[in-house]
Amino acid sequence: MSTPHNAANPGDIADKVLLPGDPLRAKFIAENFLENPVCYNEVRGMYGFTGTYKGKRVSVQGTGMGMPSMSIYANELMEFYGAKRLIRVGTCGSIHPDIKLKDVVIALGACTDSNMNHDRFGTISFAPTASFSLLDAAYQLAAKEGMPAVVRNVFTSDKFYDDRIKEKTQLMANYGVAAVDMETCELYSLAAKHGVEALTLMTVSDSLVTGEACTPEERQTTFQDMMKIALEII
């Protein structure tokens, strides 16, 4: 059964799925890391592919930007297509002076300014967190490969352009939060609801503290390192 957002039929998608926000990054992963990739989705240009990595069946599905878009694709993958292990591979902005360009941020949990969980839980402040087994595997492998990786909370924001971004990120940094993204809180919340494993791996592409940013070439090289980590542990 396909959905309004995904043309895949049952069985087209593996139970292990990488989730880049950018659909073109999904295409890049499929073409450069997967063996015999097959495109199962092009609806709204949100590419999805299934292939094999070291003999194991893996899918990669673009999710778009922001929690509402992540919610659509993650919900459908978990509820309709049987996804059991999902890893977001993306970028983030450092909001803490200890977190440098090209560091890998492994998201322990996600704070947010979104109302999506307030709508779900009312007066309860739910704390969405990563799968410990995936988190531990990612950290151990990153350390083995010599990648600078940190395990910290992240801040999932609804707004990319926010008049209060400095105020919000400084507050988060004061409480040890490492970086800002736009998807992790919803991914972790849905994983908890559906009883599946989820992890966010992100490379710091820019710093809201120093104003530094990676070049396109640096982003491409660092992204590939992060993709390999995700594929190895998934």
Automatic annotation (TrEMBL):
<keyword id="KW-0808">Transferase</keyword>
<dbReference type="GO" id="GO:0005829">
    <property type="term" value="C:cytosol"/>
</dbReference>
<dbReference type="Pfam" id="PF01048">
    <property type="entry name" value="PNP_UDP_1"/>
</dbReference>
<dbReference type="InterPro" id="IPR035994">
    <property type="entry name" value="Nucleoside_phosphorylase_sf"/>
</dbReference>
<feature type="active site" description="Proton donor">
    <location>
        <position position="206"/>
    </location>
</feature>
<feature type="binding site" description="in other chain">
    <location>
        <position position="25"/>
    </location>
    <ligand>
        <name>phosphate</name>
    </ligand>
</feature>
<dbReference type="GO" id="GO:0004731">
    <property type="term" value="F:purine-nucleoside phosphorylase activity"/>
</dbReference>
<comment type="subunit">
    <text>Homohexamer; trimer of homodimers.</text>
</comment>
<dbReference type="GO" id="GO:0006152">
    <property type="term" value="P:purine nucleoside catabolic process"/>
</dbReference>
<comment type="function">
    <text>Catalyzes the reversible phosphorolytic breakdown of the N-glycosidic bond in the beta-(deoxy)ribonucleoside molecules, with the formation of the corresponding free purine bases and pentose-1-phosphate.</text>
</comment>
<dbReference type="InterPro" id="IPR018016">
    <property type="entry name" value="Nucleoside_phosphorylase_CS"/>
</dbReference>
<feature type="binding site">
    <location>
        <position position="44"/>
    </location>
    <ligand>
        <name>phosphate</name>
    </ligand>
</feature>
<keyword id="KW-0328">Glycosyltransferase</keyword>
<feature type="binding site" description="in other chain">
    <location>
        <position position="21"/>
    </location>
    <ligand>
        <name>phosphate</name>
    </ligand>
</feature>
<feature type="site" description="Important for catalytic activity">
    <location>
        <position position="219"/>
    </location>
</feature>
<dbReference type="GO" id="GO:0004850">
    <property type="term" value="F:uridine phosphorylase activity"/>
</dbReference>
<comment type="similarity">
    <text>Belongs to the PNP/UDP phosphorylase family.</text>
</comment>
<feature type="binding site" description="in other chain">
    <location>
        <begin position="88"/>
        <end position="91"/>
    </location>
    <ligand>
        <name>phosphate</name>
    </ligand>
</feature>
<feature type="domain" description="Nucleoside phosphorylase">
    <location>
        <begin position="17"/>
        <end position="227"/>
    </location>
</feature>
<dbReference type="InterPro" id="IPR004402">
    <property type="entry name" value="DeoD-type"/>
</dbReference>
<feature type="binding site" description="in other chain">
    <location>
        <begin position="205"/>
        <end position="206"/>
    </location>
    <ligand>
        <name>a purine D-ribonucleoside</name>
    </ligand>
</feature>
<feature type="binding site">
    <location>
        <position position="5"/>
    </location>
    <ligand>
        <name>a purine D-ribonucleoside</name>
    </ligand>
</feature>
<dbReference type="InterPro" id="IPR000845">
    <property type="entry name" value="Nucleoside_phosphorylase_d"/>
</dbReference>
<feature type="binding site" description="in other chain">
    <location>
        <begin position="181"/>
        <end position="183"/>
    </location>
    <ligand>
        <name>a purine D-ribonucleoside</name>
    </ligand>
</feature>
<protein>
    <recommendedName>
        <fullName>Purine nucleoside phosphorylase DeoD-type</fullName>
        <ecNumber>2.4.2.1</ecNumber>
    </recommendedName>
</protein>
